[in-house]
Write a sequence for this structure.
């Protein structure tokens, strides 16, 4: 009988040890998963608010400089979207190809990375009714550059002003490029930035026109 009792005690001890070991394993796995989620969240936050400063050089292939088509478009990447800088002095930008439903608009120049969901409602959508001009003649949709009309050409809403006498180009708005998903969309669709799955805030810091080329300097930040 004594042996039986001792055996039962030993089995109970093994069972308790086993349960304790299982609990510790489960706790360790849970902590590991929490750490992975935490690391991913931190990584995403860093990616969202990290800014990149760069520039592009756009060349004019023939005179005069006041004709959009006389400037050769230059491809560039802003985060996950391909764009092209084009038009007079290369100061206009549009999503290139638009195969993934990217759209463009402008917002107050003082907006920052924080709280995109709060200020996305104040974005002026280029493709919205009344915001599209007639220039550039090749395709006036989904592109932002000069704001308003100049020299007989209407560009609709844009992000910079231009002094035709001094040739000084002054950014007055920030550019926002966002991605939406859905069917039946094209480069002329007016989409809601609040439904974006990805978005970038672009601030042009300088446009330096030359005799036959122009340098556009800008900083972009992923905000969504």
């Amino acid at each position: 009988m004594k042996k039986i009792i001792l055996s039962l005690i030993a089995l109970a001890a093994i069972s308790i040890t086993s349960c304790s070991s299982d609990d510790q394993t489960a706790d360790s796995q849970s902590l590991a998963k929490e750490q992975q989620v935490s690391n991913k969240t931190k990584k995403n936050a860093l990616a969202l608010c990290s800014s990149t400063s760069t520039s592009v050089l756009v060349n004019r292939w023939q005179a005069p400089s006041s004709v959009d088509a006389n400037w050769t478009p230059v491809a560039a990447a802003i985060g996950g979207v391909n764009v092209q800088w084009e038009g007079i002095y290369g100061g206009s930008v549009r999503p290139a190809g638009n195969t993934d439903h990217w759209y463009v608009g402008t917002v107050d120049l003082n907006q920052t990375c924080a709280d995109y969901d709060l200020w996305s409602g104040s974005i002026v959508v280029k493709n919205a009714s009344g915001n599209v001009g007639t220039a550039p003649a090749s395709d006036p949709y989904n592109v932002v550059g000069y704001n308003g009309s100049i020299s007989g050409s209407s560009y609709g809403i844009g992000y910079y002003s231009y002094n035709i006498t001094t040739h000084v180009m002054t950014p007055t708005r920030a550019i926002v490029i966002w991605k939406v998903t859905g069917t039946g969309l094209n480069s002329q669709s007016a989409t809601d930035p609040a439904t974006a799955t990805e978005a970038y805030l672009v601030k042009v810091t300088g446009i330096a026109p030359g005799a036959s080329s122009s340098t556009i300097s800008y900083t972009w930040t992923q905000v969504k």
Observations:
- The chain has a mean pLDDT of 85.
- Residues 149 and 198 are 31 Å apart (CA to CA).
- The chain has two domains: 1-49, 53-222.
- Helices lie at 2-49, 116-119.
